[in-house]
Design a protein that fits this description.
The protein has about 220 residues and is α/β, with parallel strands linked by helices. The protein is built from eight helices and ten strands. It has helices at about 20-25, 35-45, 60-75, 90-100, 115-120, 140-150, 165-175, 200-205; strands at about 1-5, 30, 50-55, 75-80, 105-110, 130-135, 155-160, 180-185, 190-195, 210-215. Helix 3 (about 60-75) crosses helix 4 (about 90-100) and helix 7 (about 165-175) packs antiparallel against helix 8 (about 200-205).
Length: about 220
């Protein structure tokens, strides 16, 4: 049958599209990252009653093959905890597997923290490097920073909410003379957009933990 990659809101629940709702309504199975989050989302859009399977960083090859078989025989909707699945997300492995097995893959696009940040940044970017999530391991993380310092383009970085302070501290050390645009809890009521130096950003966000994405330029 088919797999539809469905974007869900990154903060504001009104950002769900009609296309996304139709894709979920037509699906006999929903695949999400975390069951509690997925069920809460389905309840919020009044589309409960569908079975939910999980695909996340703990999934293995056996799990992927099980989900592939579901996609071969059912209409399946793939969602993530927020934003667009398949982008910095384990969903990419299932999408790739479906392509290899000639299973139809569709998309219901929508909210994206990357596009939200670029739209708010006020910078004309003809090219940039999307680095995504930095490694959690300190040694690998230090190597990643060393490689990023060689890049001449603007760089987009994401990380988990609890590493906001660590990331800004490392930026202060590695990119002291650059400027940042930090999108914090984008589209939430308490959204913040910060533009300034890494040092100023580190001071501004001291003690805060929340979803973020940032641009170094």
């Amino acid at each position: 049958m088919s797999l539809t990659v469905v974007s869900t809101p990154i903060g504001n629940p009104e950002d769900i599209s009609k296309h996304a709702l139709q894709a979920i309504e037509q699906a006999s199975l929903v695949i999400g990252e975390e069951k509690k989050v997925t069920l809460k989302f389905l309840k919020s859009v009044q589309l409960t009653g569908r079975p939910v399977e999980l695909l996340n960083e703990h999934s293995d090859a056996e799990d992927l093959n099980f989900l592939l078989e579901k996609c071969k025989s059912e209409n399946v909707a793939l969602v993530s905890d927020c934003g667009t699945p398949g982008f910095c997300d384990p969903g990419a492995d299932l999408v790739n597997l479906c392509h290899k097995h000639n299973v139809s893959v569709q998309v219901a696009p929508g909210a994206s923290s990357l596009m939200a940040l670029l739209a708010l940044a006020g910078l004309r970017l003809d090219q940039f490097l999307f680095r995504g999530f930095l490694p959690a391991n300190n040694e690998k993380r230090n190597r990643a920073w060393a490689e990023l310092k060689k890049i001449k383009w603007p760089i987009v970085i994401m990380d988990t909410p609890y590493r906001l302070d660590k990331t800004l501290s490392e930026l202060k050390q590695n990119f002291a003379n650059q400027q940042l645009v930090v999108g914090y809890r984008l589209t939430f009521p308490d959204q913040e957009l910060f533009r300034g130096s890494p040092k100023a950003a580190h001071t501004h966000f001291e003690g805060k933990k929340g979803e973020f994405i940032l641009l170094v330029h």
